[in-house]
C-alpha cells in the first residue's frame, strides 16, 4: 500500500491510465472481431469494409502504446491476406 502522497497520486494516475488502455484495447479487438466475423460469413464486401475501418484503429492502438508497432502491422497484414483470399475463393 502506498504511504507517501506522491505514491498515492501515482496509483491514481496508473488506475486512470489502465482504464484508458483497457478501453482502447477492447475497441481494437472489437474492430478485429467484425472483420473476422465477415470473413467467416464469406462476405468479401463486408469484410473489406470492416478491414478498412479496422486498420486505422489497430495502427492507432500501436501509436498509443497498446500493442507494438510490428504486432499491429502483423495483425493488419494477416487480416488483409484473409480478406484477399476470400475474394479469390469467390471468383
From TrEMBL:
Domain of life: Bacteria
InterPro entries membership: Ribosomal_bS20, Ribosomal_bS20_sf
One GO term of the biological process aspect: translation
Entry's Gene Ontology cellular component terms: cytosol; small ribosomal subunit
One Pfam family matching this protein: Ribosomal_S20p
Family to which the UniProt record says this protein belongs: Belongs to the bacterial ribosomal protein bS20 family.
The protein, known as: Small ribosomal subunit protein bS20
Organism listed in the record: Methylobacterium frigidaeris
Gene that this polypeptide is encoded by: rpsT
Amino acid at each position: 500500500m502506498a504511504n507517501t502522497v506522491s505514491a498515492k497520486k501515482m496509483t491514481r494516475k496508473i488506475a486512470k491510465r489502465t482504464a484508458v488502455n483497457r478501453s482502447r484495447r477492447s475497441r481494437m479487438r472489437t474492430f478485429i472481431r467484425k472483420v473476422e466475423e465477415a470473413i467467416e460469413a464469406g462476405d468479401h464486401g463486408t469484410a473489406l469494409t470492416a478491414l478498412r475501418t479496422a486498420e486505422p484503429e489497430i495502427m492507432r492502438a500501436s501509436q498509443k502504446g497498446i500493442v507494438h508497432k510490428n504486432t499491429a502491422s502483423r495483425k493488419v497484414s494477416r487480416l488483409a491476406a484473409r480478406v484477399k483470399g476470400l475474394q479469390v475463393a469467390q471468383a
